[in-house]
Amino acid sequence: MEELDAMIANNHATLVEQDSRQLHPMYHPTRTENAAMVERGDGVWLYTTDGKKILDSMASLWNVNIGYGNRELAQVAYEQMLDIAYSSGFAGMTNPPSAQLADKLAGFFRPNMNFTNFTSGGSESSDTSFKTARYYWYLRGKAGKTKIISRVNGYHGMTLAATSATGMSKFHSAFGGVLDGFAHVPNPNPYRYEGDRREGESVAQAAARALEEAILREGPETVAAFISEPIQGAGGVMIADDGYFDLVQAICKRYEVLFIVDEVICGFGRTGNWFGSDAFGINPDIMQFAKGVTSGYMPLGGIQVTDEIRDVINGAPEEQSWMHGYTYSGHATACAVGLANIEIIERDGLLENSQRMGARLLNGLQALVEEFPVIDNARGLGLMAAFDVVMSKESREPDAKLAEAISEAALEMGLRARPIAEAIAFAPPLCITAGEVDFLINTMGDAITQARG
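The structure corresponding to this sequence follows.
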């Protein structure tokens, strides 16, 4: 037994040393000192090379929707790779899985959205949405409509354009700031709204008015699109009040601004619906997706456009072709995995489980709010939830330091939860069981107690 423990320890130490040569996302050396070296996953559980078992209440990055260790998707990928792992989607070439997935997705989100372009992930999807919006207006004879408006604390990716749309200054300051042609408006946070609010206005009305004022300030003739997540994910699981998206969609139509909905996190069952838009009556011009479409088993993303936009694109003269695409657009193996992943979500009733377990999770988080004076504002939809850590419920003053300490304590107890400023977010795999939800809540309660002590 001692020899086995020594072998495990030596292997772990070797891997940690090798990993020190890797520049990780959002890198600082202090963040990689005690990184979890995950070697295996099963359902909602992760197993590390130093012998730890961790319930991953974030499904990695909101995206392992069907859970870890699924053998079916591995088999699908293997069989597809034996046939053709990848072939270019450029220059008159295509492949069966990309055609089949595009057909599956036709009308899947909305009846008037039947045209899909595939990318490798959410950031590429954002850039594709922005370029497609500009291209659409160019073909419509309104080439000046190029600007993109997004929301403060919205997250739309890490490429240069996607970062500019992301409404968080910490992503901008060391990289040259926001690109010209991007603007941000307040998000409709009902708990802590930071925009201008007039007497008698609801937060939803104030935030929608801020969008209209931004369009008028920039000039409607210059604004191509407004982009929004149904629920802000990396911005702290912010859920807008009812009516906000109705107002936003009316404003976009009034000023001929395309509405882009970012379903990268909310899509494919995360909210208990196929898409986050379903809960808010959102009917956009462009929808972008990634993450849950393959449950993270292969990199895949994409956009869908309305039939009206499709017809404009198809009607372009050849010299004005849609000159956009990526090497791995329509990747055969990724598309085969995406198609099988959707079938698993349907077959295994994971939407229904997301609803049931999401309600159980939210009830548990609300119980923590009742128990602890520093926990407030529990909210969620399906298996996407959060609470805020505050100095006091009366002041609502955020306590990001305590949120970090709570998350660190939880990890030591075998629960991975993500601190986002003063919020702690939860988005476990959709296959989570009632017993695992209860473990999550009980462990979080113990972690709060320890961190406060």
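DSSP finds 13 helices and 17 strands in the chain.
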